[in-house]
Amino acid sequence: MSDEVRFERIIDAPADVVFEAFTSQGGQEAFYGQDDPAWIIDSSCDLRVGGVWTITFGPAPDRLTRHRHRFDIINRPRRLVLTTTEFRTDGTSFDFTTEYTFEEHDGRTLMAMIQTGLPTELRDEHAGGVSNSFDRLTIVVRDRIAGPKRPTGA
Prior knowledge:
single chain, Alpha-D-Glucose-1,6-Bisphosphate, Chain A, domain 4, alpha+beta, 7 strands, 7-stranded antiparallel sheet
């Protein structure tokens, strides 16, 4: 049996800015990050249809999860569809699909994520971290809009 995870967030930036932030190295790492300074993230991305984004993440070297995403659809800056294989710390793996949409409304973006094909018993685990992922991405977007910080007194 399978289930899906859906999540939406309004981000105060145009769709192209949100899309570019999400598909950048910093955005990808933020999306999988945690506020724990020991948290490990390693991301490598070939952003093209058929390209692969591999991200390894977790709290310790012996407790890392790896996602291997293949880009099936890239409709810049509106939509991404990825087929993912998740390799878990217990040696098991499974496949699922994730769709991200970026819908602009008056300079703001409704970013949505829908994961389908998840094993039902893992739905809550996947849903549990999504809010944090969007929080961290929103910070990356905000920082991009603000631009580089200038030293005080300069």
